[in-house]
Amino acid sequence: AHPVRLSVQLFPYDGGRMLLLARDVTALEQADAMRRDFVANVSHEMRTPLTVLSGFIETLQTLPLDAQERSRYLGMMGQQAARMQHIVEDLLTLSRLEGSPLPGLDEWTPVQSLVRRCEQEARALSSLLTQDVQRPHVLQFPAPETLQEAGEIAGAATELQSALSNLITNAVRYTPAGGSITVEWRREADGTAVFSVHDTGVGIAPEHIPRITERFYRVDRSRSRETGGTGLGLAIVKHVLQRHGAALHITSTVGKGSTFSVTFPAIRLRAAAQPALAP
Ligand code: ADP
C-alpha cells in the first residue's frame, strides 16, 4: 500500500463542537515534488556545459595561445554549445508532446519509410562512433521487400520517427565497436505489430530498467555524455508511445545486450487500404 498524505484542519463549529476537514493531498504533493526535481535536474544539466564553456572563455582571454591551440579550444567550446542545444531541443520536444492533442486515426505512417530512415541514422551514427577502429558494428535491418508489405501505423510520422530513431541510436551508442544491432518488424496473429531493436551492447541491470524512461535518468552518466546523450531520449520515446497506445517492453542482460520492443495496436495493410483493381 502507498502512504497517503492528508492535510487536516480543525474548525470551531456551533455549540463548542469541532469540524475536522481532511483532504488527500498525495497526488498534489507528488506532482509538486516531480516539478521541483525536474527544475533541479534541468538546471544541473545546463550548469555543467556552461561551467566548462566559461572556463574555456577565460582561458582564451588570459593565456597566450597559438592558432592551433585556439582552434582546439574553440572546437571544445562548440561541443559544449551543441550539448546545450540538444538538451534544449529535447526539452522543447517533450513540452510540445505534452501540450499537443492526441493523434487520431486520420494520419497513417508507412512502416517502410520509418524503418528506412532508422537504418540511415544507425549507419551514419555507427560510422561516426567507430571511425577510429577496425571493427565497425554489424547492422541488420529487414529486407526492403518485406517492408513493402508491412503496411502503415496510425500516428504522426515525425513523432513516431523520433521515438524509433531514439531506440536505434541508443542501441548503437551503447554497443561497443564490433557488436551487432538487429532491427525486426513482425506482425502478430492478433493484428498488432512489433518493432524490435536488439543489441549486443553493455546491457542494463534489472534495477535500472524500470527507471530508464524517466527524464535525465542514466545508468552511466559519462558514457551517455560521451556519445552525445541528453538523458531525455527514452522519456520522449515513452511519451510518444503512450500517445499512440503503443507499449514498450525492455529485456536486458548486463554485458550481453538489450532488446527494446514496441507493440503497435493499430496497423493498416496497404493492400486493404488500396484494393487492387480487377483486371
Ligand atoms: P541518454 O541520452 O543518456 O542515452 P536515454 O533516455 O536515451 O538517455 O537513456 C537513458 C539511459 O538508459 C541511458 O543513459 C543508458 O544508461 C540506458 N540505455 C538506453 N538504451 C540503452 C541500450 N540500448 N543499452 C544499454 N543501456 C541503454
TrEMBL record:
Summarizing the function annotation, the protein's role is: Member of the two-component regulatory system PhoR/PhoB involved in the phosphate regulon genes expression. PhoR may function as a membrane-associated protein kinase that phosphorylates PhoB in response to environmental signals.
Which Enzyme Commission number(s) are on file for it?
A: 2.7.13.3
The answer to whether the entry has keyword Membrane is: yes
- Keyword rRNA processing on entry: no
A molecular function annotated in GO for this UniProt entry is: ATP binding
Q: Name one GO cellular component term.
A: plasma membrane
Q: Kindly provide the name given to this protein in its UniProt entry.
A: Phosphate regulon sensor protein PhoR
Q: Which residues form the Histidine kinase domain?
A: 41-268
First-listed, main subcellular location of the protein, grouped into a coarse class: membrane
Q: Which organism is it from?
A: Extensimonas vulgaris
Signal peptide, first to last residue: none
Q: Where in the cell is it found?
A: Cell inner membrane
Name a single GO biological process: cellular response to phosphate starvation
Membrane spanning residue stretches: none
EC class name: transferase
**Reaction it catalyzes:** ATP + protein L-histidine = ADP + protein N-phospho-L-histidine
Its membrane topology is listed as:
Multi-pass membrane protein
What keywords sit in the KW lines? ATP-binding, Cell membrane, Kinase, Membrane, Nucleotide-binding, Phosphate transport, Phosphoprotein, Transferase, Transmembrane, Transmembrane helix, Transport, Two-component regulatory system
